[in-house]
């Protein structure tokens, strides 16, 4: 048997195991149907339950809690987590993500709000509503059908299954409207609400900017570059893994370049993707610096973006959110060729983006030193206009209104 045939057989065995496991998991959901659905109960999760109180579900929850406090709502919010030590507001019930907890709470919640796929084998009842917020605005890396032949068969199966459960997907731009069909393998309703996690960037940036410095114990006049490398996951052709590679950035050189160009005292906040951060207590950079701060365990990326003066990534979509707040954005992609080979063709050519990009430390330093703020802001404005950006800071309110209508039995 050749290597290709062995690989194909291994993939088919893996898929068969996943389908068998999903079937047995589904039985728990069917058994929990003896319990009634509570239309005011909202079940939430982030990053397959590896995340905490952050991303789009957080900002929807904040709006629902505000309505509860003003007696305009009576919502009961349950949040599924893999790590029960994560902190949440006292009004939210934190539940460990075991099969039976997941089956019971998802089977009895009138509304589901998540930013990643449900677990394969999840069953939804007829009088429930599943709102998929996703976890990006626009995107650099390809997802779904945009990965072409590199999309694993198991990933396709899981995505198609989950999408069949979804009632609404949220969108913050014409670009998302046009790409979510193939990107999420989804044929249902796309709501032009905006993206809830962008609200903090448009409504509360100054307050959040100060609070991030206080909570991270740095001076209020200190400058922060947020470095957020993207998620790298296993292929789903076999056992799924979450991976990181050795960081090739020279952080001392990066800080020196920022201070030469922009002045002030700079810190670099490093934040891993939540699914990787959940498996690592601290990031291993191989470099020691009092100006290098690991913020991977903070649950909300967008608070960190709001607290930043610059943003650096390889392929994370969060750079577009930084751009919306006119925060200087830079790309450091030292593995571009390999990344495209393993992941698929990027959604944009690097030259199409309004961000300066580099493949090594020399190029990154040069881009920082020659950064032109006026040109950058003009380029960002034109780019977002072409993308049909519709973020206005009111997305959370719109989603809460949708939940209210569904709770009251209105479509």
Q: What is the CATH C level class of the largest domain, in words?
A: Alpha Beta
Name the CATH homologous superfamily of the largest domain. CDP-glycerol glycerophosphotransferase, N-terminal domain
Number of domains: 2
The rounded distance between the terminal residues' Cα atoms is: 55 Å
Placed side by side, the strands forming the largest sheet appear as: 3-2-1-4-5-6-7
Major beta-sheet overview: 7 strands, parallel
How many helices?
15
According to DSSP, the number of beta strands is 15
Q: Summarize model confidence as the mean pLDDT.
A: 92
Radius of gyration: 21 Å
**Under CATH, the topology of the largest domain is which?**
Rossmann fold
In terms of DSSP E residues, the strand content is 15-25%
Shape: globular
> Which regions have little confidence, pLDDT < 50, spanning 5+ residues?
234-244
Quaternary organisation: single chain
Task: Give a structural overview.
With 411 residues, the protein is α/β, with parallel strands linked by helices. The protein folds into 2 domains: 3-197 and 393-407, 3-Layer(aba) Sandwich (Rossmann fold), CATH 3.40.50.11820; 206-386, CDP-glycerol glycerophosphotransferase, C-terminal domain (Rossmann fold). 40% of the residues lie in helices and 15% in strands. The chain is built from 15 helices and 15 strands. The protein has helices at 3-31, 55-69, 99-108, 153-165, 174-183, 199-203, 205-215, 251-262, 274-277, 301-306, 318-324, 336-343, 361-369, 373-386, 395-407; strands spanning 38-45, 76-81, 92-96, 109-114, 129-132, 168-170, 189-191, 223-227, 232-233, 242-243, 266-270, 292-294, 310-313, 329-332, 356-358. The strands form 3 sheets. Strands 3-2-1-4-5-6-7 form a 7-stranded parallel beta sheet. The protein is globular, with a radius of gyration of 21 Å. The relative contact order is 0.14. The model is unreliable at 234-244 (pLDDT under 50).
């Amino acid at each position: 048997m050749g290597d290709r045939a062995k690989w194909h057989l291994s993939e088919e065995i893996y898929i068969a195991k996943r389908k068998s496991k999903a079937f047995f998991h589904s039985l728990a959901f069917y058994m929990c149907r003896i319990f009634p659905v509570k239309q005011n109960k909202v079940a939430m999760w982030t990053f397959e339950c590896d995340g905490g109180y952050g991303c789009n579900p957080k900002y929807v929850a904040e709006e629902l809690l505000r309505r509860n406090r003003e007696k305009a709502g009576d919502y009961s919010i349950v949040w599924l987590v893999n790590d029960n030590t994560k902190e949440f507001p006292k009004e939210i019930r934190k539940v460990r993500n075991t099969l039976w907890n997941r089956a019971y709470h998802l089977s009895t919640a009138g509304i589901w709000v998540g930013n990643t796929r449900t677990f394969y084998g999840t069953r939804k009842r007829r009088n429930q509503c599943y709102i998929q917020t996703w976890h990006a605005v626009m995107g650099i890396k390809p997802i779904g059908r945009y990965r072409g032949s590199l999309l694993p068969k198991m990933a396709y199966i899981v995505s198609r299954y989950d999408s069949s459960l979804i009632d609404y997907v949220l969108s913050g731009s014409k670009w998302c409207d046009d790409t979510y069909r193939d990107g999420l393998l989804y044929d249902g309703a796309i709501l032009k609400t905006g993206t809830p996690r962008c609200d903090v960037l448009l409504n509360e940036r100054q307050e959040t900017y100060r609070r991030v410095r206080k909570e991270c114990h740095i001076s209020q006049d200190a400058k922060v570059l947020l470095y957020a490398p993207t998620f790298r996951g296993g292929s789903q052709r076999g056992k799924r893994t979450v991976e990181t590679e050795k960081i090739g950035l020279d952080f001392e050189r990066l800080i020196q370049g920022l201070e030469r160009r922009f002045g002030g005292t700079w810190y670099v906040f490093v934040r891993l993707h939540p699914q990787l951060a959940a498996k690592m207590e601290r990031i291993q950079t191989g470099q020691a610096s009092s100006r290098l701060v690991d913020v991977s365990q903070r649950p909300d990326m967008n608070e960190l973006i709001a607290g930043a003066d610059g943003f650096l990534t390889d392929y994370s979509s969060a750079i577009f959110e930084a751009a919306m707040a006119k925060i200087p954005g830079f790309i450091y992609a030292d593995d571009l060729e390999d990344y495209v080979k393993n992941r698929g063709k990027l959604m944009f050519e690097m030259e199409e983006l309004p961000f300066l990009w580099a493949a090594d430390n020399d190029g990154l330093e040069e881009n920082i030193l020659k950064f032109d703020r006026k040109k950058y802001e003009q380029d960002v404005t034109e780019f977002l206009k072409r993308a049909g950006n519709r973020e206005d800071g009111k997305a959370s309110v719109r989603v809460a209104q949708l939940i209210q209508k569904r709770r009251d039995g209105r479509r």
